[in-house]
Amino acid sequence: MSFLENIREALRAISGNLLRTVLTALIVSIGLMALVGILTAIDAMRHSLGETFASLGANAFEIKAKGYGNRFRRGGVQAKQYPPLSYLQATLYKKELTRREPGTVVGVSAFISGATEIKAGGEKTNPNMQVVAGDENYLRIQSYALTQGRTFSPAELNTGANVAIIGQEMKDKLFPQASPVGKYIYALGQRFQVVGLLEKSGSGMGGGGGADRLLLVPLETGNQLPRTGALTYDVKTATPSAGSLAFLQGQATGVMRAVRNDRLGQEDSFDIESPESLTGTLDSIAGKMQLAGGIIAFLALLGASIALMNIMLVSVTERTREIGIRKALGATAKQVRLQFLIEAIVICVLGGTFGILLGVGAGNGVALLAGSSSFFVPWGWVGVGLTICVTVGLLAGSYPAGKAAALDPIDSLRYE
């Protein structure tokens, strides 16, 4: 029998025991769905994070007060929480670092509100717009570009004028047929004049709509807006040269320690986050998730291989007379063994293909919830999954195939 004839014969045998085959294939599917799903989610988030780093700039880093956003260390022990960066500390850091390193760009911003409704001309947006206050370097350091209008003037930045730069989603809702520049909008009980419109950016990791849902006001204006508590300031530093990033981080650490009054011998009261550090954190998490996915997949595939071996042994018993007829007509032990091996592999490949499709869909669904904006197919892991299918089929089918090949044709023909 040719290879294709063996496959057709395998499909015929599978259709004859459809329920048992489907149940076994589903076990294979579950194992590969767990493995491919977890790996797809990790790779999709890595891909989206890489795009985010590209938009933020690889030569930039951010400084945050230690303890915010990660309040627990390993083992569940609560980490020490330091006071957030104040406006005075942020401005002193910016002044001192740019004095020491003239080519450095420092941007200071403050998050005002993340669930804001913007109104204009009887229209209003969904209550999911972000209001951020930023200095003259904010757009540059975030790599945001204007498609209409202008940036804030020095006078507007110094006096805290009620002017704003808005994102595309805000413009499409409030001014669908007109330019928003020069128009007035209302937010947080204040009236702002629109002076600029940001280019469409789409959403990145963490969601939020990127620049499309952003309402940017001058930093001094943000300090004057009504709020329930003190603002937390974000400081981002960028250098035009990638080679000087490590040196600049050292300089930034020294300046910020002086600004924060960290005593000699005391740990830093702040964290420096860069693309490299965040990538290292993601790799650590990804390694643990891959290990967990591998264990889940191994256990599921172990159960699938046992079930498949059982089905193949039952199949050999049920088809003993058929095997005797084949051998009487000239089939060799090698041909019989190959027939049953191919049947086991076909069952695994059918179940594995379904599991891989489910895993890719589930993985991208998880990545979408985490903020990824693109559909990602990990072709390398798909190939690994199919290889695992073939391997499981070979291992589970070897013993039943050997048993079938060793049957005596005379005794097989007498079998009832």
From TrEMBL:
Annotated transmembrane regions: 21-42, 291-317, 338-363, 375-396
Classification via InterPro entries: ABC3_permease_C (IPR003838), MacB_PCD (IPR025857), Macrolide_Exporter_MacB (IPR050250)
Keywords: Cell membrane, Membrane, Transmembrane, Transmembrane helix
Primary localization class, coarse: membrane
Localization of this protein: Cell membrane
Annotated coiled-coil segments of the chain: none
KW Membrane (keyword) present: yes
Domain spans labelled ABC3 transporter permease C-terminal: 295-408
One Pfam family matching this protein: FtsX
Domain (MacB-like periplasmic core): residue spans on this chain: 21-228
Membrane topology per record: Multi-pass membrane protein
Cell membrane as UniProt keyword: yes
Family that this chain belongs to: Belongs to the ABC-4 integral membrane protein family.
Protein name (database record): ABC transporter permease
Species per Swiss-Prot/TrEMBL record: Hymenobacter ginsengisoli
